[in-house]
Design a protein that fits this description.
- This protein is of the alpha+beta class.
- It folds into three domains: 220 residues, Glycosyltransferase; 79 residues; 236 residues, Beta-galactosidase, Chain A, domain 5, CATH 2.70.98.70.
- The protein is 34% helix and 22% strand.
- It contains 16 helices and 19 strands.
- Strands 3, 4, 5, 6, 7, 8, 13, 17 and 18 form a nine-stranded antiparallel beta sheet that branches. An eight-stranded antiparallel beta sheet has the order 9-10-11-12-19-16-15-14.
- Strand 1 and strand 2 form a beta hairpin.
- Helix 4 packs parallel to helix 7, helix 7 runs antiparallel to helix 9 and helix 10 packs parallel to helix 12.
- It is elongated.
- The two termini are 38 Å apart.
C-alpha cells in the first residue's frame, strides 16, 4: 500500500507559523471584506441524527465532547480546558445537530446565544479557530442549520453571522488545499463547496472546491476504496462527507461530479468490510464500535448496493468469514508520518466475532481517558497480535521506525480459507520477522493460527541491527467484555463463553498460556476485560506458536 502523494502536502510548521503572522494582520483581514450577503441561496439537508441528551445538557450549560465534560461558569468560549479535542469540537459547531434533535424554543435560543457569543470573540483570524478543517466543518454546520436556527433571527444578528460566514469562506478558499491534509483536507473542501453553493456571489469558491475534489479524491482513496489513513472510523467520516457534498450539489441543482460519484462507489463497499456481525466497526486505528444505525444511514445515503469485499489489497485488510464466524486482520503498512495521527501500532492485529457477538478484539481508542491512556491504546500490546520485548512494531507519536513491508498470501478452497501474512517491523531492533498464518474452516466452527518469528536474512534489505536470540515475545488475544474467560485443563486451554451461550476453547503449543486483566475502550468508555497471553522466548531458530480456537459442542 502506498502513502499519500506529496504533490500538495500540508504546510510544514515553520510555514504555518509564517502564514499565521500574515493572516493575523488587519491588512489581511481587509482582503476578506466584500459586500455582505443578506441570505443563503440554498439549504442543503443534514441527514445525520444528533444526541438529544447532549443537547439538553448543553442548554443546562454542560458540554461533553471528545470524551471530556466541562461546565463553565460563563461562556463555553472562555473555557480554559487544555483538551484540544474538546476545543476543536466546540468550534466545529456540529453540536447544532444535538440542539436540533433536542428541539424546542430553548434549543433555538441556546443555539443563537452560543453563536452570538462566538461571533463577538472570533471576528478575526486565530490559528486554532480558523484552521481549515475546523472552519470547513463549522461552515457546513452553520449552512445546514441556518434555516432552522438563524433565518428568523433579528436582522442585526443574522447580518453579522452571514458576513462572518462569508469572510471565513473566502479565507477557506485560500487555504483549503494546503493548510491540512488527509481527511482534514476533505472536511475543509466540503465546507468550501457548501459555501460556494449557498453564499450568494461566491461561485468561485465552488469552482475551487470542485478542482480540489478532482485532485484529492484519487490522491487519498486507494483503487479498492480504502482511505489512506486506514481507519474504519475515518472511512465512515469520508463516506458521510462525500454523500453530503453530492446531496448539496443536487439540492442546488448542480450535476454531481464524476470524481465524487466514483469515490462514493468505491468507499461504500470498503466500509462494509470493516463491519462485524453486530453492524459496528472493527477497532483498528483509532476506531470505536460506532452506532450501527449511523453506518446503515451512510450506506443508504450512498446508494451503493455493492457486495462486501473479502479483502482490501491496496488498503491492507483481510476479512475471513465462514458460517457465523468472522475474522478481520490488519495487513497493511502504516501511513506516512504526516498522516499517522490516528495510526495504531497494530500490524497483523486480529478481531474475531460470531454472528452479532464479538469474541477477540483490539482495545480500541482511549478517547476519554487522557493522553497517557491514549498512547497506551495505540501500542502493539493493546492489539490482538504479537509483540517482542514490549516494543511497538511501529513507533508512534512521531517516531520514524515503522513496518515498511507486509506480505499477504490468501488461498480459498471449498469455503476453507488460508491466510499467510508477515511484517518486518521487528527486523531492525531484533532481527526478526513476524509471520502469522490463519486457517478458517468452511463450517465456521474453527479458526487455527500460527505465529512464528524467523531470523532475517542478513543479506536482505531490512536494516537488521538486533540479535534475534533469547528475545521475549508475547501474543495477546484481548477478549470482549461480554465474554467470560477461564483457564481449563490445568492451564493448557482457555474456555470462552459468549453471552448467547456459545462456548469456545483456545489451545496453544509452543508458548506458556495465561489469562490476565485487560481494558476495553471500544464502546466509548473504559471497561475491565480479560486477555489471553501466549508468552515465550526465541532460540536460535526463532519461535513458533500454534493455536486453535474451536467451538465447544455442536453448532450454535
Amino acid at each position: 500500500m502506498t502513502g499519500l502523494s506529496h504533490d500538495h502536502p500540508a504546510w510544514p510548521p515553520a510555514q504555518r507559523r509564517l502564514m499565521g503572522m500574515v493572516f493575523a494582520t488587519p491588512l489581511y483581514g481587509s482582503t476578506l471584506l466584500r459586500r455582505r450577503p443578506t441570505r443563503l441561496s440554498a439549504a442543503p439537508p443534514d441527514p445525520w441524527p444528533g444526541d438529544a441528551k447532549r443537547g439538553a445538557a448543553m442548554i443546562d450549560r454542560t458540554y461533553s465532547f471528545a470524551g471530556t465534560t466541562v461546565r463553565p461558569e460563563g461562556s463555553p468560549w472562555d473555557e480554559t480546558s487544555t483538551d484540544k479535542d474538546l476545543r476543536d469540537a466546540l468550534h466545529e459547531f456540529t453540536w447544532l445537530r444535538d440542539l436540533r434533535t433536542k428541539g424546542g424554543d430553548d434549543a433555538r435560543r441556546h443555539a443563537r446565544k452560543l453563536t452570538a457569543e462566538w461571533l463577538i470573540r472570533n471576528q478575526r483570524w486565530s490559528a486554532a479557530v480558523w484552521r481549515a478543517d475546523i472552519m470547513g466543518r463549522r461552515l457546513t454546520a452553520l449552512i445546514s442549520h441556518f434555516e432552522l436556527f438563524f433565518a428568523s433571527a433579528p436582522d442585526p444578528f443574522r447580518s453579522q453571522l452571514l458576513a462572518n460566514m462569508a469572510r471565513q469562506a473566502r479565507h477557506l478558499g485560500r487555504i483549503a488545499g494546503r493548510e491540512v491534509d488527509g481527511l482534514a483536507r476533505i472536511s475543509a473542501i466540503k465546507g468550501l463547496l457548501f459555501a460556494g453553493l449557498c453564499i450568494p456571489d461566491e461561485t468561485p469558491l465552488l469552482a475551487r472546491a470542485t478542482k480540489l475534489l478532482e485532485t484529492e479524491l484519487p490522491r487519498q482513496i486507494t483503487p479498492d476504496g480504502c482511505h489512506l489513513e486506514r481507519s474504519p472510523a475515518g472511512q465512515l467520516t469520508l463516506l458521510r462527507d462525500l454523500v453530503d457534498m453530492r446531496a448539496a450539489l443536487s439540492v442546488s441543482r448542480h450535476d454531481s461530479l464524476p470524481a465524487l460519484t466514483t469515490a462514493i462507489g468505491r468507499v461504500a463497499p470498503m466500509l462494509r468490510l470493516f463491519r462485524h456481525g453486530d453492524g459496528s466497526l472493527a477497532l483498528f486505528n483509532d476506531s470505536s464500535e460506532t452506532d450501527p444505525a449511523i453506518i446503515d444511514l451512510a450506506l443508504a445515503q450512498s446508494g451503493s448496493r455493492g457486495k462486501t469485499p473479502a479483502r482490501s489489497p491496496d488498503g491492507g485488510f483481510e476479512r475471513l468469514s465462514a458460517g457465523k464466524l468472522l475474522a478481520i486482520e490488519d495487513c497493511g503498512t502504516p501511513p506516512a508520518t504526516a498522516w499517522d495521527n490516528h495510526t495504531h501500532a497494530g500490524t497483523l492485529g486480529l478481531e474475531v466475532s460470531l454472528a452479532k457477538e464479538r469474541l477477540i478484539v483490539n482495545c480500541g481508542p482511549a478517547i476519554a481517558s487522557g493522553a497517557e491512556w491514549r498512547n497506551a491504546a495505540r501500542a502493539t500490546a493493546a492489539h490482538s497480535t504479537l509483540a517482542i520485548e514490549d516494543t511497538n512494531s511501529s513507533e508512534i507519536g512521531g517516531g520514524t521506525r515503522r513496518v515498511s513491508r507486509v506480505h499477504v498470501d490468501r488461498q480459498e478452497t471449498d469455503g476453507n480459507i488460508w491466510l499467510s501474512t508477515s511484517h518486518n517491523g521487528y527486523a531492525g531492533p531484533f532481527g526478526l520477522i513476524h509471520h502469522r498464518r490463519l486457517y478458517m474452516a468452511a463450517t465456521g466452527d474453527e479458526l487455527r493460527g500460527e505465529d512464528a518469528l524467523a531470523a532475517v536474512d542478513h543479506d536482505g534489505h531490512d536494516g537488521v541491527a538486533g540479535n534475534p536470540e533469547n528475545r521475549a515475545f508475547t501474543i495477546r488475544f484481548h477478549v470482549h467484555p461480554s465474554v467470560s474467560t477461564s483457564l481449563a485443563q490445568n492451564g493448557a486451554a482457555v474456555l470462552l463463553r459468549l453471552p448467547g451461550g456459545s462456548g469456545w476453547r483456545l489451545r496453544a503449543g509452543g508458548a506458556k498460556l495465561d489469562v490476565a486483566e485487560s481494558i476495553y475502550f471500544g464502546d466509548g468508555g473504559a471497561k475491565r476485560t480479560q486477555q489471553i497471553i501466549l508468552s515465550g522466548r526465541t532460540d536460535g531458530n526463532g519461535a513458533t506458536v500454534k493455536w486453535a480456537l474451536r467451538r465447544e459442542g455442536g453448532k450454535g
